[in-house]
# Entry
Amino acid sequence: MELGLTGRRPGRGRLAAVSVSSGPVLIADEDASSRAQLALVLESAGYEIIEVASGEEALRAIGEVSPSIVLLEIPLGDLSGYEVCRALRADASDMPIVFVSGSRTESYDRVAGLLVGADDYIVKPYAPDELLTRVRHLVRRSQPSPEPVTARLTKREREVLGLLAEGLRHDEIAERLFISPKTVGSHVANILRKLGVRSQTQAVMVAYRDELGDVPDRRLADLSSS
# Structure
């Protein structure tokens, strides 16, 4: 079915700025020049763009292309941007929605947009770098978190890695877990292989990164000297 929308390819040389798992950005604005200007800003950052000129086209496109974020002007023909946003939220959609408006710029307009479910409200004229920052933040926040590397480990291997992170030696780990030091060594070898690292220090740093946050300075010094 023809949607009456315009698709654009990502800007050349900037694809690295966007996750390959991201869908396109949908721009809904009845003003063609305004759409083109916004599309140019986003294409320069590597985003694929879908453009529509009405609220009806926006809802139809969203149902077919699953955009990573929707950018709405308020006037969109028979179905306003407010109504599009309300319809998406009524459908329990958690898709990021941002109003980018030059027609409704007062504080009460922005409040109304947020009340109907928008994640952000940007007034035209906008600063391109600020708009891109807000778009990137919302797209990144809406994507599922990658599975931590340590999820590859068995329960016992995770126990061993946790004790290594506490600073225990192999013999101390063996005593704590009621296993032999040789078995501990086997678990450590498996941990290094599965995490793709070469040393216990690197394995512990991966554990902190994935589950515990930054390695404390004191612990990092202990690891470096071990």
